[in-house]
Amino acid sequence: MPMTKFLQEAKKFEIQAYNKKKDFKRLKDENVPFSGSPLKHPYDPNKVILVADPYSTNTYYYEFRTEDIAFVEELPSLVNIDGESVNMARVWIKKKRVGVRCTPFVVEAIGMFSNNRR
Prior knowledge:
Distance between the termini: 98 Å
Radius of gyration: 22 Å
Strand content: 35-45%
Strand order of the largest sheet: 4-5-1-2-3-6
Shape: globular
């Protein structure tokens, strides 16, 4: 019997199945969600950095200890105009834990402290 259909190359399926946390009510009651782009901490392997809006000109980031993370959800990646993508995630942090929120800025003169006023 001659073969009429040949195997074809399988294409990558871009949709992933959603893995819901088994006890979502408990997750919401005991944790707080933060969304952003997760990065390794530059010098502490026990911490993670979460950049809130990586392509914004006015962004900030969070810093958490990895042991304070209860659950992580993968979110859709962001893509900039040049086609570069950034992974995004929703990180659930245990309540009553200490995190750091940092807002970098350029130091400039503030109106009430300008050189014109003495």
